[in-house]
Specification:
The structure is a single chain. Helix content is about 75%, strand content about 0%. The protein contains ten helices and no strands.
C-alpha cells in the first residue's frame, strides 16, 4: 500500500463538497512512491487510490468518534542531523609564505625582491582564480535555479492536469535534464579554458621564480621547494581525512533515509491493516445490531466520494474495479452503500 500524500486527510465533520475536493486532491497526488506489497488475498486492484483515501477517512472518523487527535503516521526525523566538516584549502601562496618566513630569517640578500615579486604575481593569479571560481559558482547556480524552476513548473502543470505519473510528465522531465546537462557541459568547457590559461600563467611565473632563485641561492631554492612540498603533503593528508569523513556522513545519511522510508512503509502497512481489522469487526457487529444513523451518514459521504472517483472511468471499467475490490469496499462503504454503488454504475450510468 502506498504512503499517503497529505498531512491532513479529510473526513468527519467537513461538508460533502469539501470532502470530495480534498480527497480528490489526495488522489491526484497519489502514486509518487512505489507501493508496499499487499498481503495475498487482500488485492485492492485498480481501486487502490480510492481505498487508501477511504481508509484515511475511516481512521479520522474513528479518532473523532473517540475524541482522539488524528495522526496519519508517525513523525520520524528525515535526517540524522550529521554535519560535514568545512575547510578552506590552503593555496600555493599560503604554503609558500609559511616556508618563506622561516627561510627569510635564515637567508638574506637580493633574492628577497625576487621572492616578493613572485609571491605578488602568484597572489594576483590565484585571486583571479578565486574570482573565476566565484563567477563559475554563480553561473552554475543560475543554471541550477533555471532547471529547478522548469521542473517545478512542469510538475505543477502535470499535477493540475492529473498527469504526474504519465509519459507526458516523463518526457518533459527528460527534456529538462538533457537541456540542463548540455548547458552544464558548455559552461564547464568555457571555464576549463579559463583555468588552463591561469594555470599556464602560474606555471610560467613558477619557472621564472626558479630561475631567479638559482641566480641568488640554489640552496635557498632547494629548501623552499622541499618546505612547500612537505606542507602540500600535509595539506593533502588533511583534505583526505576531511573528505573521507564527509563521504561517511553522506553514506550514513543515505542509509538512514533508506531505512526511514522502509520504516514509514512498514508503519503505514501495519496502520492500514489495523484500521481494516477494526472496520471488519465493526461491520460484523453492524450485521447483528444494525447501522447507526451517524454511521449511515458517514457511509453516504464515502459513497459520494466513490462515485466521484469512479466517474473518471467507464461503467464497464468501474464494474471490473468494483468486483476485484469488493472485499475492501464492502467494509469501508458498508454493504448497503457498496450495493448502491453497483446499482448506480450498472443502472443509472447506463
Amino acid at each position: 500500500m502506498a504512503n499517503p500524500k497529505k498531512d491532513e486527510p479529510v473526513g468527519g465533520s467537513l461538508g460533502l463538497d469539501k470532502v470530495v475536493e480534498k480527497v480528490l486532491n489526495y488522489l491526484h497526488g497519489y502514486g509518487k512512491t512505489e507501493p508496499a506489497d499487499i498481503p495475498e488475498g487482500d488485492e485492492m486492484g485498480s481501486s487502490r487510490e480510492l481505498i487508501d483515501a477511504l481508509t484515511e477517512l475511516d481512521a479520522k472518523y474513528r479518532a473523532e468518534k473517540m475524541g482522539l487527535d488524528y495522526a496519519p503516521i508517525t513523525n520520524i526525523p528525515d535526517s540524522l542531523g550529521l554535519e560535514k566538516i568545512g575547510y578552506d584549502e590552503k593555496d600555493l601562496t599560503e604554503l609558500t609564505d609559511e616556508v618563506a618566513v622561516e627561510l627569510d630569517a635564515k637567508y638574506a640578500g637580493d633574492r628577497e625582491k625576487s621572492e616578493r615579486d613572485y609571491i605578488k604575481d602568484v597572489r594576483d593569479i590565484e585571486s583571479e582564480v578565486d574570482k573565476t571560481r566565484l563567477k563559475e559558482s554563480e553561473d552554475i547556480n543560475k543554471l541550477t535555479e533555471s532547471a529547478a524552476a522548469e521542473a517545478r513548473s512542469l510538475t505543477e502543470d502535470m499535477v493540475l492536469q492529473g498527469l504526474v505519473n504519465s509519459t507526458v510528465y516523463d518526457l518533459g522531465a527528460e527534456g529538462i535534464v538533457k537541456k540542463s546537462a548540455e548547458e552544464f557541459r558548455k559552461l564547464s568547457a568555457e571555464y576549463d579554458v579559463k583555468y588552463q590559461k591561469l594555470d599556464a600563467e602560474l606555471k610560467e611565473r613558477e619557472s621564472e621564480y626558479r630561475e631567479a632563485l638559482e641566480a641568488f641561492d640554489l640552496k635557498y631554492a632547494a629548501e623552499l621547494k622541499a618546505g612547500v612540498q612537505k606542507l602540500k603533503l600535509e595539506e593533502e593528508k588533511r583534505l583526505k581525512e576531511i573528505n573521507d569523513y564527509n563521504a561517511s556522513v553522506t553514506e550514513r545519511e543515505n542509509a538512514y533515509r533508506a531505512e526511514r522510508q522502509q520504516l514509514l512503509n512498514d508503519l503505514y502497512v501495519a496502520r492500514t491493516e489495523a484500521i481494516m481489522e477494526a472496520a471488519r469487526a465493526e461491520r460484523e457487529e453492524e450485521l447483528q445490531t444494525g447501522v447507526s444513523e451517524e454511521k449511515r451518514a458517514e457511509y453516504r459521504r464515502r459513497f459520494e466520494l466513490a462515485k466521484a472517483f469512479y466517474s473518471r472511468f467507464t461503467p464497464e471499467e468501474t464494474g471490473k474495479m468494483l468486483e476485484e475490490s469488493r472485499l475492501y469496499l464492502g467494509v469501508l462503504l458498508g454493504d448497503d452503500m457498496f450495493n448502491e454503488l453497483g446499482r448506480w454504475n450498472f443502472l443509472e450510468r447506463k
